[in-house]
Amino acid sequence: MKVTVQPSSLSGSIRAAASKSSMQRACAAALVSGATTTVINPGHSNDDEAAKDIITRLGAVIEKAGEEITISSSGVKPVAEAINCGESGLSIRMFTPIVAMSEKTITINGTGSLVTRPMDFFDEILPQLGVNIQSNGGKLPLQVTGPLKPGNITIDGSLSSQFLTGLLMAYAASNASDVTITVTNLKSKPYVDLTLAVMKEFGLKIPVNNNYESFYFDKNEAVNPSNRTYTVEGDWSGAAFLLVAGVIAGPITVKGLDVFSTQADKAILQAIMSSGGGISIEPTHIELRPLPLKAFHFNATECPDLFPPLVALASYCEGKTVIEGATRLTHKESNRALTLQEEFGKMGIKIELQDDLMIVHGGTGVRAAKTHSHHDHRIAMAAAVAALKAEGAVEIEEAEAINKSYPDFYDHIRKLGGIIH
């Protein structure tokens, strides 16, 4: 699908979409809790749908009632021989240890860029926990046979915290006792906080967090998960694009975001304030308005998904914006560092890559251009936001990539007055 975004002025109010980070974790926690969960404000992105499909294949039953869903589970009891994670990096990394809780041999697969992402983490770690695993040279498909037996292990957290998320869930659901997961080089700590918060919400066993260097499951702690209601919070990852759109082309108001959230991408607020963007944060909403923007320095190591909206913001900031954490972008839906450099280059924005730094030369004007999403949802959204005050129309090829995380994105921009064909 090709989308054309015309220069536009935005106004009005919009509610942020449901967080897929929260939604997918809730699906996993509902499955392993062995109870019944009512989920309010469930997401419907491709990643959310993949997570729901996975847990039904692992034994959960999902019923939809209006704007809510009910997940009934008696634990991990697979009813299928395979699961497919779509293009969701969180799903593959979180659900693989959960799949390994079963004695049944399960094949784990994915689609698109996920089949090229490295999965040799599991080849190294799962056999230490009594799990038999076969991979395709460290990539998908994986074939896993459990049951997983929690033990003392050390893992490398430099590639993604999502591997730790899956192990924490599986250990808790397996009633791990007097064992420790030691972690080196952990990245994206706020996402670990989100995982632990969801686990607590679902009554799962919570490990002692030793400054993110180790997680100890006490032998004396016992929990009894019970039926519950869980509300999926608004998505800071998707809302980051709305917030940037507001300071570029507003004024707009964004509702439905928890300013006390543990989501890493809440840090977009810091970046906007550093750029001089017009922003007012209220208990129930956030107001955005255009003001003269200046270059800023921002460390996105803990929140690498913010790079695309940060680049869109930096394009309108006078001077050289420096964003740290570029090495975190290699194994995404695309190599985002190179993709951002290429696609924003088409729009006249020069981006330099120096080791872990991305330097964006902003304030030079965003040109009309024909761009390509590279099948990456965040690249498509970044291009669309940058187009709002461009010198002419910006075309985006493979624009349907947004369905992975934020299928309502173009509709939301249109509702605010954006001209999108």
| Protein structure class | alpha/beta
User: Helical proportion?
Assistant: 25-40%
CATH superfamily of the largest domain, by name, is Enolpyruvate transferase domain
From the 3D structure, determine the CATH topology of the largest domain: UDP-n-acetylglucosamine1-carboxyvinyl-transferase, Chain
Query: What's the CATH class label of the largest domain?
Result: Alpha Beta
CATH architecture verdict of the largest domain: Alpha-beta prism
Strand order of the biggest β-sheet: 22-23-1-24
Shape label: globular
Describe this structure in words.
The protein folds into two domains: 3-17 and 234-420, UDP-n-acetylglucosamine1-carboxyvinyl-transferase, Chain; 20-219, Enolpyruvate transferase domain (UDP-n-acetylglucosamine1-carboxyvinyl-transferase, Chain, Alpha-beta prism). 30% of the residues lie in helices and 24% in strands. The chain has twelve helices and 24 strands. Strands 22-23-1-24 form a four-stranded mixed sheet. Helix 3 runs parallel beside helix 5.
